[in-house]
Amino acid sequence: DVKVTQSSRYLVKRTGEKVFLECVQDMDHENMFWYRQDPGLGLRLIYFSYDVKMKEKGDIPEGYSVSREKKERFSLILESASTNQTSMYLCASSFPGSEVQPQHFGDGTRLSIL
Amino acid sequence: SQKIEQNSEALNIQEGKTATLTCNYTNYSPAYLQWYRQDPGRGPVFLLLIRENEKEKRKERLKVTFDTTLKQSLFHITASQPADSATYLCALYPSGTYKYIFGTGTRLKVLA
Fold this sequence. Notes:
The structure holds two protein chains of two kinds. Chain A has strands spanning 4-6, 10-13, 19-25, 31-38, 42-49, 56-57, 64-70, 73-78, 87-94, 104-105, 109-113. Chain A is 0% helix and 53% strand. In chain A, strands 2, 4, 5, 6, 9, 10 and 11 form a seven-stranded mixed sheet that branches. Chain A has a four-stranded antiparallel sheet with strand order 1-3-8-7, with no helix packed on it. The N and C termini of chain A lie far apart (37 Å). Chain A contains no helices and eleven strands. Chain B starts with a strand and ends with a strand. In chain B, 32% of the residues are buried. Chain A binds chain B through residues 4, 33, 35, 40-45, 48, 50, 56, 58, 90, 92, 100, 102-108, and chain B through 8, 31-32, 34, 41-46, 49, 89, 91, 93, 98-100, 102-105.
């Protein structure tokens, strides 16, 4: 079974802090994703990576950056946290391919910015 | 504008009945559509995928239909059980893109 592990289930940070959210997958997936999930808005894609050191902006990249130095690890960075970044953050991974593959999600990090 | 809509109101049904959830979309041409289940405090879990040229897909008690003319997918759970209570998300994979577009989900509660 694929396992996607997010480093923290709950995190509380202050405005202006630099925040790191870590995600590790154990299935050698090329594709990794970061989403945020907010009530009434669903999952929104922040960033996507299809290979080591490669990244693509999603729909809401402002205020975020990412790092993928190793295939199994994808980090989301909040450069200077703000209260509107309080949310549930979900990491996912999948195989690439001509056929669309299911995404495998971690259990999320609930981040509160005070 | 592009939209993907799921009924935001919770669906309550009696155990043993068939639950039917709806996913409607506008201004997309999805090559694929997926359904996920999400339990409180957990990440979504993949259930089923259906391609644009498929009308129906089944897996055990689950059935998904995909009507590209109506721009709608229906997700059915037959002989529903309280353990099926969760939020169900649909996700489109539009042609020519690399990303999934998720609906906001419908919460299903199966009453014993």
